[in-house]
Amino acid sequence: MEYIAYLHKDRGSDYGVSFPDFPGCITAGRTLDEASRMAEEALALHIQGMIEDRDPVPEPSKLEDIAKDAARQGAIAFMVKVEAPDATVRVNITARESQIAKIDELAEAAGMTRSGYMVRAAIGGQRGGMRAKSRGRQFRTRQ
User: How far is CA 33 from CA 22, 41, 98, 111, 124, in A?
Assistant: First the structure.
């Protein structure tokens, strides 16, 4: 699926990205390339959070639907592709109590659930580690 994103840039700031179909889903990057990568990651995590919360995921808007959107003023619209989300599967793991406590501590500091943190750490490990925590929770805010 592809969703519309807005790229914003104010003088002296990073490149900000927001999504008209997902109020509260925002991210930023120091460069255009970083903002684009962060947009894909932010949107995927936001949609996954909606699914976990059993919130409906909206269908992508069409470009003509956003023509009069006030948030579009001064922004450049671009498309962000996300894979259709998989079904969530519950698994059991075995770990030391102290390891689970440390995972819970790190997850809380990142503003994530234990499961979300563990999945993000595993997937992030394939891409060279997790992203900086300072950006980790710019992705989703509750409405």
Answer: 21, 13, 39, 25, 18
